[in-house]
Amino acid sequence: MDITEVVKLSGIPASTLRYYEKSGLIASLGPRGVRRRFAPSVLDQLALIALGQLAGLSLTEIRSMLSPGGGVTIDRTLLANKADDIDATIRQLKAVSRGLRHAAACSAPSHAECPTFQELLRSAASGALARRKTLGG
Amino acid sequence: MDITEVVKLSGIPASTLRYYEKSGLIASLGPRGVRRRFAPSVLDQLALIALGQLAGLSLTEIRSMLSPGGGVTIDRTLLANKADDIDATIRQLKAVSRGLRHAAACSAPSHAECPTFQELLRSAASGALARRKTLGG
DNA sequence: CCTTGACTTGAAGTCAACTTCAACTTTTAT
DNA sequence: ATAAAAGTTGAAGTTGACTTCAAGTCAAGG
How far is A125 from chain B (nearest CA, A)? Predict the structure, then answer.
């Protein structure tokens, strides 16, 4: 596949694909300076990258998980920890979602004054500030 | 409360608090140029900001939801839409989490080669690339 | 009163993740 | 063969969210 086909199928701009390649997230075939060719599997990788980003991973973290490299096995504990982080995020996002839905339905003059909103958020928020520090590592 | 107390209680650095104040996310009391004083409610606001960030909202979006401003009612449809976005994110994060946990347990030589991992991610990824375009608005 | 240290400000610097630019080469169509 | 379209490169620019810096101010202790 050439770059335009990947752009069409993935919706990711060519500039981003080049950027991803330069930063070692995806690979292209053929000599350099000439038009890139991509294996179809690049679409899977791009989906994985998009997912990782959704999960709040940096490109650096994602790269370490893709590591097609020379046999270095990736750290399974890291993966499990990431999954734990994500699960915690999910719990809090659920609270945020409920809070937003309530706010959308609630007729209090200001959301800051709606006690239900406050309470929903407060319960969710309790851990958020704490997590703030421990995330990103 | 003075700024150091807020720093201690929230874990958020003073520079960030000043930055948040400058960008209108939180407010401080007293005249300018002299030491800031914060109402205790600032802690709730900070928690809310942290939560919003967890949910993937930009500070601009968060500000629009806090809007303590002059009576402009915030858009409830926007809130509901955000909640929908977040729910979609939650569904995909669940898949990511399952994928990561499987990868952590799986003994395939490379995760790219593990069919279960592939399948989990593929199902989660199907929407991820599409969502990529529509998010952030 | 004076020093010390925490606080203030605006401006500039940093980092991640891209995008845009300028100059140039490769393909494709005629 | 050649013009136009689409691709390539490295370098520089952009945006969001902060952090760091330089210079000055305020407040508490001795």
Answer: 5
Q: Is the C-beta atom of B47 closer than 7 angstroms to strand C?
A: no
Q: Give the closest of A46, A87, A95 to B97, CB-based.
A: A87
Range ranked top by mean pLDDT from A9-13, A14-18, A90-94, B71-75? A14-18
In angstroms, the CA B42 to CA A38 distance is: 51
Structure confidence by residue, pLDDT tens digits, A79-102:
787 788 888 888 888 887 887 787
Token digits of residue A53: 């980003």
Token reading at A130: 């704490």
CATH for A3-63?
Answer: 1.10.1660.10
Going by C-alpha positions, the residue among A97, A62, A57 that lies closest to residue B90 is A97
Of all nucleotides in the shown strands, which has a C1' nearest the CA of B34? Answer: C8
Cα B88 to Cα B132: distance, rounded to the nearest angstrom: 12
Measured distance CA(B24)–CA(B26) in Å, rounded? 6
Break chain A into its structural domains and give their ranges: 3-63, 76-134
